[in-house]
Amino acid sequence: MKLAITGKVTALEKAPFVLRGPYEEIIPAAASIGYDAIELHIDDSAHLDRPLIRRLLADSGIGLSFIGTGTAYSQDRLFLSSEDEAIRRKAIRRIEDHIDTAKEHGAVVIVGLVKGQIKDCSSREACVRNLGESLTELVKKAEADDAPLVFEVINRYESDFLTSIDEALDFLTPFNSRHLLLHIDTFHMNIEEASIPASIRRAHGMIGHCHVADSDRWHAGHGHYDFAETIQALRDIGYTRALSVESYQFPDPLTSAAESFKTLKALL
Ligand code: LER
Ligand code: MN
Question: Does residue 192's CB lie within 6 angstroms of at least one atom of ligand 1?
Fold first, then answer.
Protein backbone atom coordinates (compact mmCIF):
# COMPACT_ATOMS: atom_id res chain seq x y z
CA MET A 1 0.00 0.00 0.00
CA LYS A 2 1.39 3.39 -0.97
CA LEU A 3 0.98 6.68 0.88
CA ALA A 4 -0.52 9.88 -0.50
CA ILE A 5 -1.20 13.26 1.06
CA THR A 6 -3.84 15.89 0.34
CA GLY A 7 -2.95 19.31 -1.02
CA LYS A 8 -4.89 22.37 -2.08
CA VAL A 9 -3.83 25.80 -3.29
CA THR A 10 -6.03 27.66 -0.79
CA ALA A 11 -8.08 26.22 2.06
CA LEU A 12 -9.78 27.39 5.24
CA GLU A 13 -7.72 26.95 8.40
CA LYS A 14 -9.91 24.06 9.63
CA ALA A 15 -10.46 22.35 6.28
CA PRO A 16 -9.02 18.81 6.34
CA PHE A 17 -6.32 19.33 3.73
CA VAL A 18 -2.72 19.09 4.82
CA LEU A 19 -0.46 20.82 2.32
CA ARG A 20 -1.51 24.28 1.22
CA GLY A 21 0.08 26.62 -1.28
CA PRO A 22 1.04 26.85 -4.94
CA TYR A 23 1.52 23.56 -6.79
CA GLU A 24 5.21 24.52 -7.20
CA GLU A 25 5.53 24.19 -3.41
CA ILE A 26 3.15 21.45 -2.33
CA ILE A 27 4.07 18.81 -4.92
CA PRO A 28 7.83 18.88 -4.11
CA ALA A 29 6.98 19.09 -0.38
CA ALA A 30 4.95 15.86 -0.54
CA ALA A 31 7.81 14.15 -2.37
CA SER A 32 10.49 15.40 0.03
CA ILE A 33 8.67 13.91 3.04
CA GLY A 34 8.57 10.55 1.26
CA TYR A 35 4.98 10.34 -0.01
CA ASP A 36 4.47 8.30 -3.18
CA ALA A 37 1.65 10.49 -4.46
CA ILE A 38 -0.39 13.61 -3.90
CA GLU A 39 -4.17 13.98 -3.79
CA LEU A 40 -4.97 17.37 -5.26
CA HIS A 41 -8.21 19.09 -4.34
CA ILE A 42 -8.92 21.19 -7.40
CA ASP A 43 -11.61 23.86 -7.62
CA ASP A 44 -12.11 23.62 -11.39
CA SER A 45 -10.01 21.45 -13.71
CA ALA A 46 -11.07 23.61 -16.67
CA HIS A 47 -8.78 26.31 -15.24
CA LEU A 48 -5.93 24.00 -14.25
CA ASP A 49 -2.49 24.44 -15.79
CA ARG A 50 -2.18 20.75 -16.74
CA PRO A 51 1.31 21.04 -18.31
CA LEU A 52 2.57 22.61 -15.06
CA ILE A 53 1.13 19.76 -12.96
CA ARG A 54 2.63 17.21 -15.35
CA ARG A 55 6.08 18.83 -15.10
CA LEU A 56 6.02 19.23 -11.31
CA LEU A 57 4.99 15.60 -10.80
CA ALA A 58 7.71 14.37 -13.17
CA ASP A 59 10.38 16.57 -11.54
CA SER A 60 9.35 15.44 -8.05
CA GLY A 61 9.01 11.77 -8.98
CA ILE A 62 5.57 11.34 -7.40
CA GLY A 63 2.16 10.52 -8.81
CA LEU A 64 -1.23 12.21 -8.81
CA SER A 65 -3.36 9.55 -7.16
CA PHE A 66 -6.71 11.18 -6.45
CA ILE A 67 -8.58 14.36 -7.32
CA GLY A 68 -10.82 15.95 -4.70
CA THR A 69 -13.85 17.81 -5.98
CA GLY A 70 -15.77 19.01 -2.92
CA THR A 71 -15.43 22.74 -3.51
CA ALA A 72 -17.87 22.41 -6.42
CA TYR A 73 -20.45 22.09 -3.62
CA SER A 74 -18.93 23.95 -0.69
CA GLN A 75 -17.88 27.03 -2.67
CA ASP A 76 -19.95 27.01 -5.87
CA ARG A 77 -23.13 25.15 -4.77
CA LEU A 78 -22.95 22.80 -7.73
CA PHE A 79 -24.21 19.30 -6.91
CA LEU A 80 -25.10 16.14 -8.79
CA SER A 81 -28.50 15.63 -7.14
CA SER A 82 -29.82 19.11 -7.94
CA GLU A 83 -33.34 19.45 -9.27
CA ASP A 84 -32.23 22.58 -11.08
CA GLU A 85 -31.12 21.13 -14.40
CA ALA A 86 -28.64 23.95 -15.07
CA ILE A 87 -26.90 23.35 -11.72
CA ARG A 88 -26.89 19.57 -12.19
CA ARG A 89 -25.36 19.94 -15.68
CA LYS A 90 -22.65 22.27 -14.37
CA ALA A 91 -21.84 19.76 -11.61
CA ILE A 92 -21.59 16.95 -14.17
CA ARG A 93 -19.36 19.13 -16.33
CA ARG A 94 -17.13 19.87 -13.36
CA ILE A 95 -16.58 16.17 -12.71
CA GLU A 96 -16.06 15.46 -16.43
CA ASP A 97 -13.29 18.07 -16.48
CA HIS A 98 -11.68 16.40 -13.45
CA ILE A 99 -11.84 13.03 -15.27
CA ASP A 100 -9.92 14.69 -18.12
CA THR A 101 -7.23 15.71 -15.61
CA ALA A 102 -7.21 12.29 -13.95
CA LYS A 103 -6.98 10.11 -17.03
CA GLU A 104 -3.40 10.95 -17.99
CA HIS A 105 -2.15 10.22 -14.46
CA GLY A 106 -4.04 7.02 -13.68
CA ALA A 107 -5.79 9.04 -10.97
CA VAL A 108 -9.18 8.50 -9.39
CA VAL A 109 -11.86 11.21 -9.10
CA ILE A 110 -13.68 11.62 -5.78
CA VAL A 111 -17.44 12.14 -5.62
CA GLY A 112 -17.93 13.36 -2.07
CA LEU A 113 -19.70 16.53 -1.08
CA VAL A 114 -20.51 17.21 -4.76
CA LYS A 115 -23.24 14.57 -4.50
CA GLY A 116 -25.36 17.20 -2.66
CA GLN A 117 -27.79 16.55 0.19
CA ILE A 118 -31.45 15.73 0.69
CA LYS A 119 -31.94 19.10 2.38
CA ASP A 120 -31.02 20.76 -0.94
CA CYS A 121 -33.81 18.84 -2.74
CA SER A 122 -37.61 18.66 -2.47
CA SER A 123 -37.51 15.00 -1.38
CA ARG A 124 -35.17 12.09 -0.71
CA GLU A 125 -36.53 10.35 -3.81
CA ALA A 126 -35.73 13.30 -6.08
CA CYS A 127 -32.26 13.63 -4.59
CA VAL A 128 -31.37 9.95 -4.99
CA ARG A 129 -32.91 9.78 -8.48
CA ASN A 130 -30.99 12.81 -9.75
CA LEU A 131 -27.76 11.63 -8.18
CA GLY A 132 -28.25 8.23 -9.82
CA GLU A 133 -28.89 9.79 -13.22
CA SER A 134 -25.82 12.00 -12.93
CA LEU A 135 -23.62 9.11 -11.89
CA THR A 136 -24.95 6.89 -14.69
CA GLU A 137 -23.81 9.56 -17.14
CA LEU A 138 -20.46 10.09 -15.45
CA VAL A 139 -19.67 6.39 -15.19
CA LYS A 140 -19.84 6.14 -19.00
CA LYS A 141 -17.08 8.73 -19.31
CA ALA A 142 -15.10 7.21 -16.42
CA GLU A 143 -15.19 3.84 -18.19
CA ALA A 144 -14.32 5.28 -21.62
CA ASP A 145 -11.37 7.22 -20.15
CA ASP A 146 -10.43 4.50 -17.65
CA ALA A 147 -10.43 7.03 -14.81
CA PRO A 148 -12.55 5.59 -11.98
CA LEU A 149 -14.91 7.55 -9.74
CA VAL A 150 -15.06 6.83 -6.03
CA PHE A 151 -18.09 7.65 -3.92
CA GLU A 152 -17.15 8.94 -0.47
CA VAL A 153 -19.13 7.81 2.58
CA ILE A 154 -19.42 10.97 4.71
CA ASN A 155 -20.61 11.09 8.31
CA ARG A 156 -24.07 12.25 9.45
CA TYR A 157 -22.87 15.69 10.58
CA GLU A 158 -21.71 16.58 7.07
CA SER A 159 -24.15 14.62 4.91
CA ASP A 160 -27.82 13.71 5.38
CA PHE A 161 -27.80 10.51 3.31
CA LEU A 162 -25.55 7.59 2.36
CA THR A 163 -23.55 7.98 5.57
CA SER A 164 -22.57 4.35 6.22
CA ILE A 165 -20.67 1.77 4.21
CA ASP A 166 -23.67 -0.59 4.01
CA GLU A 167 -25.98 2.16 2.72
CA ALA A 168 -23.41 3.23 0.14
CA LEU A 169 -22.87 -0.39 -0.96
CA ASP A 170 -26.62 -0.79 -1.53
CA PHE A 171 -26.62 2.41 -3.57
CA LEU A 172 -23.52 1.61 -5.66
CA THR A 173 -23.97 -2.10 -6.36
CA PRO A 174 -26.70 -1.65 -9.05
CA PHE A 175 -24.33 0.48 -11.17
CA ASN A 176 -22.25 -2.69 -11.55
CA SER A 177 -19.16 -0.80 -12.72
CA ARG A 178 -15.48 -1.18 -11.84
CA HIS A 179 -15.35 2.58 -12.46
CA LEU A 180 -17.66 3.54 -9.60
CA LEU A 181 -16.27 2.30 -6.32
CA LEU A 182 -16.59 3.05 -2.63
CA HIS A 183 -14.42 5.66 -0.92
CA ILE A 184 -13.93 5.20 2.82
CA ASP A 185 -12.45 7.67 5.31
CA THR A 186 -11.21 6.73 8.78
CA PHE A 187 -12.66 9.91 10.28
CA HIS A 188 -16.16 9.15 8.98
CA MET A 189 -15.94 5.41 9.73
CA ASN A 190 -14.92 6.19 13.31
CA ILE A 191 -18.29 7.97 13.72
CA GLU A 192 -20.59 5.72 11.68
CA GLU A 193 -19.39 2.10 11.62
CA ALA A 194 -20.15 -0.31 14.47
CA SER A 195 -17.09 -2.38 13.54
CA ILE A 196 -14.69 -0.72 11.12
CA PRO A 197 -12.82 -3.89 10.04
CA ALA A 198 -16.09 -5.83 9.62
CA SER A 199 -17.54 -3.03 7.44
CA ILE A 200 -14.38 -2.93 5.33
CA ARG A 201 -14.51 -6.71 4.86
CA ARG A 202 -18.18 -6.52 3.78
CA ALA A 203 -17.10 -4.02 1.10
CA HIS A 204 -14.66 -6.54 -0.36
CA GLY A 205 -13.96 -5.78 -4.01
CA MET A 206 -15.72 -2.41 -3.86
CA ILE A 207 -13.23 -0.09 -2.12
CA GLY A 208 -11.36 2.28 -4.43
CA HIS A 209 -10.01 4.87 -2.03
CA CYS A 210 -9.25 5.40 1.66
CA HIS A 211 -8.72 8.75 3.42
CA VAL A 212 -6.88 8.61 6.70
CA ALA A 213 -6.86 10.94 9.67
CA ASP A 214 -6.72 10.15 13.37
CA SER A 215 -9.84 10.00 15.57
CA ASP A 216 -9.63 13.76 16.21
CA ARG A 217 -8.87 14.43 12.54
CA TRP A 218 -5.33 15.47 13.38
CA HIS A 219 -2.37 13.67 11.81
CA ALA A 220 -2.06 9.89 12.20
CA GLY A 221 -0.59 9.16 15.62
CA HIS A 222 -2.22 12.12 17.39
CA GLY A 223 -5.42 10.40 18.54
CA HIS A 224 -6.61 6.87 19.30
CA TYR A 225 -7.62 5.49 15.88
CA ASP A 226 -6.51 1.88 15.32
CA PHE A 227 -4.72 2.19 11.99
CA ALA A 228 -3.14 -1.29 12.25
CA GLU A 229 -6.61 -2.88 12.36
CA THR A 230 -7.81 -0.87 9.32
CA ILE A 231 -4.65 -1.63 7.34
CA GLN A 232 -5.02 -5.35 8.13
CA ALA A 233 -8.66 -5.33 6.98
CA LEU A 234 -7.69 -3.50 3.77
CA ARG A 235 -4.89 -6.01 3.14
CA ASP A 236 -7.30 -8.89 3.74
CA ILE A 237 -9.63 -7.63 1.01
CA GLY A 238 -6.76 -6.95 -1.41
CA TYR A 239 -6.94 -3.14 -1.42
CA THR A 240 -4.08 -1.92 -3.59
CA ARG A 241 -4.49 1.84 -3.94
CA ALA A 242 -2.87 4.38 -1.63
CA LEU A 243 -3.87 5.44 1.85
CA SER A 244 -4.32 9.17 1.46
CA VAL A 245 -3.86 11.47 4.44
CA GLU A 246 -6.74 13.93 4.70
CA SER A 247 -6.41 15.58 8.09
CA TYR A 248 -6.13 18.92 9.80
CA GLN A 249 -2.86 20.70 9.11
CA PHE A 250 -2.11 21.35 12.79
CA PRO A 251 0.36 22.30 14.22
CA ASP A 252 1.54 23.24 10.72
CA PRO A 253 1.28 21.52 7.33
CA LEU A 254 4.82 20.14 7.07
CA THR A 255 4.91 18.82 10.66
CA SER A 256 1.46 17.29 10.23
CA ALA A 257 2.42 15.63 6.92
CA ALA A 258 5.69 14.31 8.36
CA GLU A 259 4.01 12.94 11.51
CA SER A 260 1.36 11.05 9.51
CA PHE A 261 4.04 9.69 7.21
CA LYS A 262 6.14 8.42 10.12
CA THR A 263 3.18 6.76 11.87
CA LEU A 264 1.72 5.11 8.77
CA LYS A 265 5.02 4.03 7.24
CA ALA A 266 5.91 2.20 10.45
CA LEU A 267 2.61 0.28 10.26
CA LEU A 268 2.96 -0.56 6.58
C1 LER B 1 -15.43 15.59 4.02
O2 LER B 1 -15.44 15.53 5.40
C3 LER B 1 -14.33 14.76 3.52
O4 LER B 1 -13.99 13.76 4.09
C5 LER B 1 -13.62 15.17 2.31
O6 LER B 1 -13.05 14.08 1.69
C7 LER B 1 -14.41 16.02 1.39
O8 LER B 1 -13.58 17.02 0.90
MN1 MN C 1 -12.54 12.36 3.26
Answer: no
